[in-house]
Write a structure and sequence with these properties.
The structure holds 2 protein chains of 2 kinds. By secondary structure, chain A is α/β, with parallel strands linked by helices. Chain A contains 6 helices and 9 strands. In chain A, helix 1 packs across helix 6, helix 2 runs parallel beside helix 3 and helix 3 packs parallel to helix 4.
């Protein structure tokens, strides 16, 4: 998109960049001229996007794996962490056990924490860190309370890091319903039904795309004055009743 | 932005002028609106681009607004930026005059006038951006109570409009201290403060805010959002 400031000569690391919103951010950053390093669980030879990015594989729940990753990468300009574990996320509170809840908090919150902790000393002047949460941060629903709690904790961490790590800028993207691989557990008919419901309910009358999120991510990387901010990109989700 | 019309209220200086330049540089047809003819014409001459119009309009005069906005074709994006002289309404609450109270809400009144006139001309996939200040959430200590309330009112106004005017997108940009004419008298002092105290260690430029408004104009999934771009001021 034309409104993006250039990322030419900048090194951008996207953790959770092999699919969905992370891949949207990786593509937008590459379009803006960045050297993009895409980090994910999947081995590089099992990923479909290839030539434009350098690929790295990590285990988000293993701090040593993340430490080794940032040692391999060295200096960088911008970090975006969107990786979200698939385990432990759902379940009604009284039916959920501590182990599953902890597994989600470990992957999402502490996974992002370790990434920021390892990356910050290697971030060059003008650089930034961006976390990705979701509308559930301010709109908890039955059965996903641990997701809401982890998201809100991460947003608060970002604000604390903005203060402590400044002039490194630290922000959060809070996306709403976004049409990405995270809905891959639905069959095609159910996914169409979701798109229809979201388009009918949200003021913006459509579901978000990974390109929308990528666009926002590059803005947060390039704007020199934005820090400690939550960029809400939800199509107006908080104005209407929960789906 | 090619072939799209961007109308900017408060375009003769500061953030409004930077938005006009941002849009013109992306091939938009730009309509610059401001109350002072002389300043507006000088500002318009400084904006490169083949499709830049400057129209004098006092947003507080409803008939003038209806007539000027009514003379435009389709508006894709409407950007409303702050008026410059609100600081004259600053007063401790126990000394606040009725006149100052009225004038503190001029910005809201003016924005309502413009939006009321513009709605029939706004493209269905268009947007409205309201610019307000960080005083909405972190007011200065002295004499800012009603001005802070007015800044906060714009945030609520934007959210309600996003619902009422859907699918037109409506967002609020909350800016901190920016290097504009408002601070000209104390510019060096402000710059020094920003470079020392602000989390980003720099004095924000109008272009930084224009880039952020550009995101709100072009990102099709952002609505009802309040985007804070303040160098970390509200986090301090």
């Amino acid at each position: 998109m034309q409104d993006l400031h250039s990322l030419r000569g900048r090194r951008v690391v996207i953790v959770g960049g092999t699919s969905g919103m992370g891949r949207g951010a990786a593509q937008a950053a590459a379009d803006a001229g960045a050297e993009v390093i895409v980090v994910g669980r999947r081995p590089a030879d099992q990923r479909d996007s290839t030539g434009r990015f350098r690929h790295e594989t990590v285990d988000m729940t293993a701090p040593a794996s993340l430490q080794a990753l940032f040692e391999r990468i060295g200096e960088l300009d911008h970090l975006l962490v969107t990786a979200t574990p698939s385990t432990g996320a759902t379940g009604r509170f009284l039916e959920q056990d501590l182990e599953r809840a902890r597994a989600f908090m470990d992957g999402k919150f502490f996974g992002s924490w370790v990434c920021a902790h390892e990356a910050a000393p290697r971030i060059r002047p003008g650089g930034s860190i961006t976390f990705v949460t979701g509308g559930a941060a301010v709109r908890p629903k039955a059965g996903i309370s641990i997701i809401s709690a982890a998201f809100r904790a991460l947003e608060t961490l970002a604000q604390g890091l903005a203060i402590e790590l400044g002039p490194i800028r630290v922000n959060t993207i809070r996306p709403g319903y976004t049409d990405s691989e995270m809905w891959g557990f639905l069959d095609e008919a159910a996914r169409d039904e979701l798109r229809r419901k979201v388009a009918a309910a949200m003021p913006v009358r459509r579901m978000g795309t990974v390109e929308d999120i990528g666009h926002a991510a590059v803005f947060l990387m390039t704007n020199p004055q934005v820090t400690g901010t939550v960029l809400e990109i939800t199509g107006g989700e908080t104005l209407v009743d929960a789906l | 932005m090619h072939a799209q019309t961007v109308a900017v209220v408060g375009a003769s200086s500061g953030i409004g002028l930077a938005v006009a330049r941002w849009a013109a540089a992306r091939d938009a047809a730009v309509v610059m609106l401001s109350r002072s003819r002389e300043r507006l014409e000088r500002a318009a001459e400084s904006v490169p681009g083949s499709s830049v119009r400057a129209l004098v309009m006092d947003m507080l005069e409803r008939e003038v607004v209806d007539s000027v906005i009514g003379s435009l074709g389709t508006i894709d994006h409407l950007v409303l930026t702050a008026v410059a002289d609100e600081l004259s309404s600053r007063a401790p609450v126990r000394e606040l005059t009725n006149d100052q109270l009225e004038r503190s809400f001029d910005k809201l009144r003016g924005f309502v006038n413009v939006i009321r006139a513009a709605v029939p001309r706004l493209a269905p996939r268009g947007s409205i951006t309201l610019v307000t200040g960080a005083s909405a959430v972190k007011p200065p200590r002295e004499g800012f109570s009603v001005l802070a309330a007015a800044s906060g009112a714009l945030v609520s106004f934007g959210k309600a409009l996003a619902l009422e005017l859907s699918p037109i997108r409506v967002n609020v940009l909350m800016s901190g201290v920016v290097d504009t004419a408002i601070h000209a008298a104390r510019r060096e002092q402000m710059k020094e403060w920003a470079e020392k105290e602000l989390l980003v260690r720099r004095f924000g430029a109008p272009e930084d805010i224009a880039q952020a408004i550009g995101l709100l104009l072009t990102n099709p999934y952002v609505t009802a959002s309040t985007l804070t771009v303040d160098g970390g001021f509200t986090a301090l």
